Amino acid sequence: MASFSPSDGHVYCFVCKLFSKTRSQFTHGGYCDWKNAAARLVEHETSKNHLNATTHFAVRSKEKGCVDQELVQQAESEAIYWQEILKRLISVIVFISERGLAFRGEKQVFGSPRNGNYLGILELIAEYDDFLDKHIKNNGSCGSGNTNYLSSTICEEIVQLIKKKFLMKLSLESSSKNTIPYR
Ligand SMILES: [Zn+2]
């Protein structure tokens, strides 16, 4: 039951945060060692502390729904956060693609004048957009494996998705032109 915090880029365990009596990285400070994340998450989720917290959570969930509501709200606000980030990334990707410009520069880091069009335009928008600015400042320099949607891998994935959607639209348009209406 790991939960990503967009504000500090760390992972917390929300069940333990709410109900565990012992402090750990998953309740205080947050976990961010991405290389060992999978193993540590499994280890945490089978630990005695986590299982006790889960039992406590299950009991509380049955009482007047107070816990569930908090969690639903948390999940909803996180979903909105990532939608807003994605909207900005897609706008930049479409802008670069339409003009046939190169995405990457020599350096794949924020703050470098040689970081290419993708990161460069995101930085430019961030000068006037506090939301994106905060996201880049909090997550922009985290290594790969971190969920920040700013890496070149994610950029490439979005480009492929847009391409696929565009080609599908084209083939639908041409097939509807070639179809002889059925009488
Ligand atoms: Zn836990």
Give a short synopsis of this structure.
Helix content is 61%, strand content 4%. By secondary structure, it is mainly α.
Please tell me about this protein's structure.
- With 183 residues, the protein is mostly helical.
- The chain is built from 7 helices and 2 strands.
- It has helices at residues 14-19, 37-45, 48-62, 66-98, 116-126, 130-139, 152-178; strands at residues 2-5, 10-13.
- It has a two-stranded antiparallel ribbon with strand order 1-2.
- Helix 4 packs across helix 7.
- The longest helix is centred in the middle third of the chain and has 33 residues, at 66-98.
- The protein is globular, with a radius of gyration of 22 Å.
- The N and C termini lie far apart (57 Å).
- The site of zinc ion (ZN) has 7 residues, from helix 1 and helix 3.
